[in-house]
Fold:
Amino acid sequence: MRLFKHITKLQAAIAEQRAAGNRTGFVPTMGALHEGHIALIERAVAENDYVVCSIFVNPTQFNDATDLVKYPRTINADLAKLYAANCSAIFIPTVAEIYPENASPTPDIDFGSLTEVLEGAYRSGHFDGVVQVVHRLLDIVRPDHLYMGQKDYQQQAIIRYMLEQLSSKIQLVTCETVREKDGLAMSSRNMRLTAAQRAIAPSIHATLTKVAQQMGQDSIQDLEQWGKEQLTQKGFVVDYFSIVDGKTLLPIETFDATDSVVAATAAYLGDIRLIDNLILK
Ligand code: PAF
Structure:
């Protein structure tokens, strides 16, 4: 496993692989790696000859400055996990390396409502930062395959749209959410939960699962309302609990209105914001 801090050296290593006819898989992360990230690495290792993982806590996607400061940084543990998972290369750039003054601008893509609904409505500018950094990282790595998690459903939908709009040859592979035994979606933020909050946190997945079971029996509005109430009663402060079209992420009137339906939620326990989703159809 090789560690790169500079773009030129990373690109030279990737070019060598490409010249040998090898395929490159890329897993962008912000570190604090958990089993969900490692599942992405393992899938990339299985499907490619060379796997690059980036660890970069991207300042431009944090709408909340405290969240950026508090974001967990566990680099030594991260490196050990990546080594064990047979990752080929780790890219740990500085902010100046990713955002030099002469960087080419992010293409101006009209995402329509895709970046404005759900997370976009609560985290102003967040997806601008995600698009900016993922575009920049892809421009550096130029992988054959890009791996992202379903847990950030909206994020992967936006990146998929970006790749389509750019007619990119990069194939996005979205991998299923990895969960703790009690259903809590793995997240780097989970390590900040107190024992009491950790005990409540699985209610998110339990509530989404019950909604999935009720699909088609209760109305969308009733299920959204019920989900929000359940989480509020457990002690969450809910930003949204929404059942939407899985492609456009727009509200739907009925389950039959579209062939792809997702239930997605974001809720706080104390100052920790958790998100999760379930594909209903
Ligand atoms: O999902 C994340 O960890 C980040 O949003 C990503 C894709 C690495 C971009 O900074």
